[in-house]
Amino acid sequence: MKYSEKEYPLQKESYQIIGICMEIHRILGKGLLEIVYKDAIEYEVKKKKIPYEREKKYEIEYKGIILPHYFFADFVVFDKIILEVKAQKGIVDDHYTWLINYLAISKCPLGLIVNFGENRLITKRVIF
Fold first, then answer.
1. pTM of the shown model
2. What's the count of helices (H) and strands (E) in the chain, helices before strands?
């Protein structure tokens, strides 16, 4: 089923990312450290020549100054999608809150949370 690009932006790109993550989960399964899944994602996006940045740093502006602390997005893919990788039991409300804040700071229109910590890959889309 095809949804409107306005309601569900970057469908093609997000399906490509989720497909990569599904393949990784199928091969590696659950129970590994988050960093291992990130390494596999990086391998796959490089192989497919998908533009990405890993651990992209975002500064936080407050009242005209840059705060001394910042955040790192796990991946920014296609320059428009923040990909947050988890390897734990369940996705909790804090993960959504963090991702919404990351989207606001980065100005990316779409965020994906992928969780490798379950028997099947769990994915969540967050549209800013």
1. 0.90
2. 3, 5
